[in-house]
Amino acid sequence: MTLEPRANPELAGQGEAEAVFLDAFNSGRLAHAWLLTGPKGIGKATFAFRIARFMLAGGGEGGLFGAPTTLGLEPTHPVFRRIASGGHADLLTVERGWSDDKKTKRRGEIVIDDVRGIGGFLSLTSAEGGWRVVVVDAADEMNRNAANAVLKVLEEPPSRALILMVSHSPGRLLPTIRSRCRRLALKPLSDAVVQDLLDKGQPGLPAADKTALTGLAEGSIGRALDLAEQGGLDLYREMIGLLSAAPRLDIPALHAFADKMARPESDGAWRTLTELLCWWLARLVRAGGTGGAGLSEVVAGESALMTRLLAAAGLERWLEVWKKLRTLFARVDAVNLDRKQALLTAFLTVERLAQGK
């Protein structure tokens, strides 16, 4: 079972980031706002709540000279338990609000109503005489009005207040927000760490599947676990199997695959597949730009397929296809276009380029 970030006591593979924060804390140079950046699924939100627990527990336990040496807090600690349950008065979590009264689906962005209470919350005296902490997960999801409201708080930060903003794509944030935060970049996890976490999150996973999922994850345990739970690896293998017939695709097999993806009950599989196809095309472009340096196969036959496709059409044309298909799939989701037709268009576009057309 995968723990929610607020309830996860472990932070694997991010010791360097933890050391940076501890150094700032121990030296008395703690910034009032931190931008925690890096790819999705590498532990940024887990790190944010780890910091929040540390701060709200009074700075952790002292080391040899009284300075804390870890941000970790035991799960049995009262502060840990209250944060895990969402019941700490000095912690405010900001995320996308619900789009319906039954709370079955979240909005697509963080709106001003979601952030309106930050200023008032931070201006209050701490309920427990210490710090007040805000976690924004994720800052990239704020619309412009919400971002401007947060910016006002950043411009006049209260004392003993800490704002932790998770960001997958910091380039999407207002430059003024970025400039008022200390940026701390978390790195993608090593393959060894991803495989170890897969063992814990998906015990009994076959070794070949674990290796393939690690290749698909590119350092993100969140992505690896999502793919494992959603059948993403089987979809990827089926996708590569179809593409491997290029420059002459198996049209009946392609139609059967597209029919399966177009079914109403295949919503999750459709999104997973389209993300994987766009990811694979981006990988193809990177392989072409680097001459294949550092490219490893996720499933057998990928390298030969990529070599064949790159020989058939130039890098710029494959880049155009990647952009075109990203736009196509976004439109399918936005205005409910025909999924089968979109998928056929995507695969046949790849076929035409493979034929040098």
Description:
This protein is of the alpha/beta class. The chain has helices at 15-26, 44-56, 78-84, 112-115, 118-123, 144-155, 175-179, 191-201, 207-217, 221-230, 232-243, 251-262, 267-290, 302-312, 315-335, 339-354, and strands spanning 33-37, 91-94, 132-137, 161-167, 182-185. The protein has 2 domains: 5-185, 3-Layer(aba) Sandwich (Rossmann fold); 231-354. α12 (251-262) runs antiparallel to α16 (339-354) and α15 packs antiparallel against α16. The mean pLDDT is 92.
Keywords:
357 residues; alpha/beta; Rossmann fold; 16 helices; 5 strands
Q: Which helices and strands occur, and which strands form pairs?
A:
Blueprint: H1 15-26, E1 33-37, H2 44-56, H3 78-84, E2 91-94, H4 112-115, H5 118-123, E3 132-137, H6 144-155, E4 161-167, H7 175-179, E5 182-185, H8 191-201, H9 207-217, H10 221-230, H11 232-243, H12 251-262, H13 267-290, H14 302-312, H15 315-335, H16 339-354
Parallel strand pairs: 1-4, 1-5, 2-3, 3-4
Short description:
This protein has 16 helices and 5 strands.
Shape: elongated
**Extended strand count:** 5
What is the mean predicted local confidence, pLDDT?
Answer: 92
Quickly give the structural class. alpha/beta
User: What are the low-pLDDT stretches, counting only 5+ consecutive residues below 50?
Assistant: none
User: Which fold name fills CATH's third level, the topology of the largest domain?
Assistant: Rossmann fold
Order of helices and strands: HEHHEHHEHEHEHHHHHHHHH
Largest sheet features: 5 strands, parallel
Spatial arrangement of strands, main beta sheet: 2-3-4-1-5
Percent strand equals 5-15%
